[in-house]
Design brief:
Blueprint (H helix, E strand, L loop, with lengths): L16 H23 L3 E6 L6 E6 L2
Length: about 60
């Protein structure tokens, strides 16, 4: 298994241009994972811990 981490540091600047790059990349990755899951007839599951310290997106066996 290969893991990739996409991160974005906190900023109080609502107009921070890096925020858009982060969310654009996040959407690209979600689209890629969704397409792959559909190709192999699987769903997706978002898993997270109680403190929302870790959020994972996984393929879900149907």
């Amino acid at each position: 298994m290969i893991r990739h981490t996409l991160s974005y540091d906190y900023t109080e600047d609502d107009n921070d241009p890096d925020a858009y790059r982060f969310y654009d990349r996040l959407i690209e990755l979600l689209n890629t994972v969704t397409e792959h899951a559909n190709d192999v007839n699987q769903g997706l599951a978002i898993e997270y811990d109680d403190d929302l310290e870790m959020v994972s997106l996984r393929r879900k066996w149907l």
